[in-house]
Amino acid sequence: VYLAIDRTNWYWGKAKINVFMLSICYEGIAIPIFWRLLKKAGGTTGKEQIELLSRFINTFGKESIQGILGDREFPNKALIAWLVA
């Protein structure tokens, strides 16, 4: 499967919501399967990215991943090193 990692934020009233999610790409649609509410503003760290991807790997296995898609927030050296290890 192809995976997409993304983070989005919005307001619910005065509360700021910051969600980091991992989705399966299927026929042009990203279907969220794992996510994490971040208790901070801004982007994710390599550690947070690895933790979310580890949840997928522990459930479905690393061999099920054909590719991972992400935008400019995700070119993280720690994440890339972990993925190729």
TrEMBL record:
Q: Report which superkingdom the organism of origin falls in.
A: Bacteria
Transmembrane domains' residue ranges: 17-38
Alphabetic keyword roster: Membrane, Transmembrane, Transmembrane helix
The protein's name is Transposase
